[in-house]
């Protein structure tokens, strides 16, 4: 009898342990499901706002550019192209404002305020970076794309006073045109990137954000912007290259935004890249003693555009990573 009771007690104890284990498992699953639901609920508003923003930022310029293409074809030579491309640069900022109004997000995290104390360096970087890139592009192009001894020939005819005047001119024009860079950066860096970082890791956000930014340029690339119309796998290769370039340059512009807590240095850097790099590299190459027709022919080829893009992208990626690491070191101190 004693043995039977002992067996019954052990069986009851075993049943209680099983029940307790099952209840614990159910509780853990419930808790996990609650966390997942809560996590998903927190992300939903950011995703909705991001989708609305992208629909507007892509929709307005794409519609206008498709109308342009339907009337004038895939070309940048028409008089309407310049104003259209300039207006397109403001669409990301317009999308930011409209999305905030539609979703009642308010004016939080606009990335507009900046403390100039300690952040002047980021404005200087924005102006110095494209000068360096323009010089590097000209040096590499003279060694690879132009006739032999072009590099020594270029420095032999180099006019330092004219070059200094050119730099002062493009810097002043860039500062005056910073509102155009603001048109894009107030959208991409001030709105899209923070939303992406809510939905994925910062590294993934940089890649996804860069690809989105590159695809936004697709109709312009198809018209011949950046790479022309005469290259292998046109326009798809150009669009892919644009996406790669935008990922790299996006790292640089995002680093400036995060380091300064403002989109203003990125806006200056964006328009500086657009205005200064080509002007500086083109002026340096013009010092090579070759016929102007040959200079224009080489400068307009896809190989030169590709070299320009690679130099810019690699330099921007390196600069962006350097700014990110410098910021981490300063925070630790």
Based on the model shown, name its key terms.
333 residues; mainly alpha; 13 helices; 80% helix
Number of domains: 1
Work out the helix count.
13
Q: Radius of gyration from the CA trace?
A: 27 Å
Overall mean pLDDT stands at 88
Give the SSE string: HHHHHHHHHHHHH
- Give the total of beta strands: 0
Residue fraction in strands: under 5%
Low-confidence stretches: 34-39
N/C terminus separation: 75 Å
Which structural class do you get from the secondary structure elements? mainly alpha
Helix content: over 70%
Biggest β-sheet description = none
Oligomer: single chain
The backbone outline, from C-alpha atoms, is globular
What features would you describe in this structure?
- With 333 residues, the chain is an all-alpha fold.
- It has one domain (36-332).
- Helices cover 80% and strands 0% of the residues.
- The protein contains 13 helices and no strands.
- The radius of gyration is 27 Å and the shape is globular.
- The model is unreliable at 34-39 (pLDDT under 50).
